[in-house]
Amino acid sequence: MKLRSACKFLHLLTIIFTVIEAQLVDKSNKRKEISRFEPNWESLDSRELPKWYDESKIGIFIHWGVYSVPAFGTGLSAEWFWTIWRSWNVEDHVNFMKDNFKPGFTYQDFARDFTGEHFNATEWVQLFAESGAKYVVITSKHHEGYTLWPSKYSFSWNSVDVGLHRDIICEAFYLEVYLFNSDNVFSAELSEACRVDNRIRFGVYHSLLEWYNPMYVSDRDSEFTQREFVEKKTIPELKELVMKYKPDIVWSDGEWEASYEYWNATEFLAWLYNDSPVSEIVVTNDRWGNDTMCLHGGFFTCHDRFNPGVLQPYKWENAMTIDKLTWGHRNNAKLQDFLTSKELIKELVVTVSCGGNILINVGPDKFGIIQPIFAERLRDMGKWLSANGEAIYESQPWLYQNDTITPDVWYTQGASINLRRDVFAIVLDYPYDTNTVELYSLFGYTDENTTIHVLGYPESVQWRIVNESVQVTLPNKAQLDKRGLNLAWTLKINVPE
Ligand SMILES: *[C@@H]1O[C@H](CO)[C@@H](O)[C@H](O)[C@H]1NC(C)=O
Ligand SMILES: *[C@@H]1O[C@H](CO)[C@@H](O)[C@H](O)[C@H]1NC(C)=O
Ligand SMILES: *[C@@H]1O[C@H](CO)[C@@H](O)[C@H](O)[C@H]1NC(C)=O
Ligand SMILES: *[C@@H]1O[C@H](CO)[C@@H](O)[C@H](O)[C@H]1NC(C)=O
Ligand SMILES: *[C@@H]1O[C@H](CO)[C@@H](O)[C@H](O)[C@H]1NC(C)=O
Ligand SMILES: *[C@@H]1O[C@H](CO)[C@@H](O)[C@H](O)[C@H]1NC(C)=O
């Protein structure tokens, strides 16, 4: 009861923020006329992504579902457990079930043990805020069909009816607001400030398909000429999710077996962009049918762990994992399966230099714990960003993405102010032998007034032109270490336009 009334209160507040925010967005974009989007790609693709998304750069992805109970993966992703076991009959999965569970044990039987007794959304959101991430995307429903909210389209196969007995999507939203109120006083003004402040935004991952839903299976058997599942399940459920929780992101997946026409995706998106309560602020991805990925939608994800290493002509996102082999938690992960903090920073830097956002996945366990190894990686990133964030947030790709000659140096740039701007050169490997870095791409872009700083270090550093490069002498390494500057080092170079 308590939770439910909190939810209702929150929904009321969210409506208020959405209206206020819509007005702010309107003002800042100086939008004069409101034109409606048509349910076709030409029109939908012409929508500008709300600015907040590109500025944010970093999000956290959460895969949490019934698969977090068996939590088993051997190179195949753990959240695919049901289908790997039941449909693909992969031997180690079949044996895992045979060896550990009674005959006749079903996947649905795992839901009872999806207990989340240590789930504390405050702790999750605090960790995400400390990581420097600006948005969170949670699996509201994965391909198994189990919803993390009490959807009326998923009776008895949702987090309130079985397992957690909690509305996880609501709690996460509730905390988005509550995080920034240290007194735990839940007031409209405070919530509004939080929304306007845009400290952390909230998105929902949603799988269009459900492996074993009989309506879906029957539609597939008809080669998708029949559309009962879309009409009675997918679209009503998506609309319920949007109306109830007003997400900032709708991150679609599970699209690949049928065309966008089957999924009615253009009709849904036109509704989302025109008439939904999040029409002004929402962003979406590109997974709306077997014929849309990397072609249509909001930002492009192209494929899992997409990180092309070169500038892209559209806004894109690198959805990747800290446990390199899986999205859902698995109990049998090895230390070497996790990205190190240094590798994570490299992934972030390369992504942002090439115009992407990064969506970093963590898989909480069935108890609701984000294992310390994930927490450490995220906190290391947050610490790095507290010194180097100027080169990341709200940055733009520069003329060059990586240095033409020196390896492992990546560039971004800041805004132009009085005909000058800052170029950021992020050095991923420390030049231990020389203590200098040669920036070849910057040759010809500096002038007599150029100053160079290492972010997080108080004094400017020495530089000179050598052999068609800007050669920067770094401060004494011990002085950098003393300030906790590690993992990667950012040079901030002030150049004329
Ligand atoms: C959740 O975590 C926060 C922060 O650590 C703590 O203050 C709060 O008491 C916890 N809530 C529960 C129900 O344990
Ligand atoms: C597709 O969306 C349109 C607009 O909402 C609706 O009229 C139509 O019935 C939908 N078709 C299916 C199969 O859901
Ligand atoms: C996409 O799905 C449709 C069914 O909606 C199917 O007819 C078509 O062959 C699929 N295309 C590809 C490239 O798989
Ligand atoms: C970096 O830049 C060089 C020259 O511009 C290019 O050849 C190289 O492929 C780029 N990418 C990486 C990852 O080094
Ligand atoms: C450098 O700054 C000085 C003082 O502001 C100014 O007079 C001079 O024109 C600047 N030089 C260049 C190349 O912009
Ligand atoms: C000058 O740069 C070239 C690459 O362009 C390099 O091969 C050469 O060793 C450099 N010379 C010095 C003195 O650094």
From TrEMBL:
Pinpoint the Glycoside hydrolase family 29 N-terminal domain residues: 28-171, 188-390
- Gene Ontology terms for molecular function: alpha-L-fucosidase activity
Q: What is the residue range of the signal peptide feature?
A: 1-22
Has UniProt tagged this entry with the keyword Glycoprotein? yes
Give one Pfam family, short name only: Fucosidase_C
Q: Which InterPro entries match?
A: FUC_metazoa-typ (IPR016286), Fucosidase_C (IPR031919), GH (IPR017853), Glyco_hydro_29 (IPR000933), Glyco_hydro_29_N (IPR057739), Glyco_hydro_b (IPR013780)
Enzyme Commission designation:
3.2.1.51
Alpha-L-fucosidase C-terminal domain sequence ranges: 401-493
What does the entry list under GO cellular component?
lysosome
Record key words, sorted: Glycoprotein, Glycosidase, Hydrolase, Signal
Alphabetical list of SUPFAM superfamilies matching this protein: (Trans)glycosidases
A biological process from GO: fucose metabolic process
Domain of life (superkingdom): Eukaryota
Task: Give the record's family classification.
Answer: Belongs to the glycosyl hydrolase 29 family.
Its function, per the record, reads: Alpha-L-fucosidase is responsible for hydrolyzing the alpha-1,6-linked fucose joined to the reducing-end N-acetylglucosamine of the carbohydrate moieties of glycoproteins.
Name of protein: Putative alpha-L-fucosidase
Give the gene symbol: Fuca_0
